[in-house]
Design goal:
Helicase, Ruva Protein, domain 3; 5 helices; about 130 residues; about 5% strand; mainly alpha; two-stranded antiparallel ribbon
Length: about 130
């Protein structure tokens, strides 16, 4: 990641021979604000697929991304690269959340009306014969 918060050298994503004007998501002439109708290029979806993200999931992130960056007024050289960074962050966050999901506990269960978690512990239940 470079100082602009993008995925390093754009030539790594698009090849050394592609000019800024030819690269999807990059406009010639420098940094631009995100267009309100911005959509990631096919290359972003191809990248996402290689990293285990479905097109549907990646596409579902676009609206929030556009709203956020429209509100900030930030200008970027490549909105595709910025979006890739966002997808990486979301994927890492999802993986962390899934890895740390606790096992269900007594208090997480759905009990009948009037029941408490203590009613489910066998040695605390009075023996009806005793």
């Amino acid at each position: 990641m470079n100082r602009h918060g993008t995925v390093g050298d754009p030539s790594l994503l698009y090849g050394d021979d592609a000019s800024a004007a030819e690269r999807p998501g990059i406009r010639g002439g420098g940094r631009t604000p995100i267009p309100p109708d911005w959509q990631p290029s096919q290359r972003v979806f191809d990248w996402a697929a290689k990293h285990g993200m479905t097109r549907t999931w990646a596409a579902a992130q676009v609206d929030e991304f556009v709203v956020y960056w429209t509100d900030t007024g930030t200008r970027r050289d490549s909105w595709d690269a910025t979006f890739i960074n966002r997808l990486r962050t979301l994927q890492a966050s999802d993986a962390t959340r899934q890895d740390h999901e606790p096992e269900p506990r007594l208090a997480d269960k759905d009990y009948s009306v009037g029941a408490t978690p203590l009613d489910q512990i066998p040695w605390l239940i009075p023996d009806p014969l005793g």
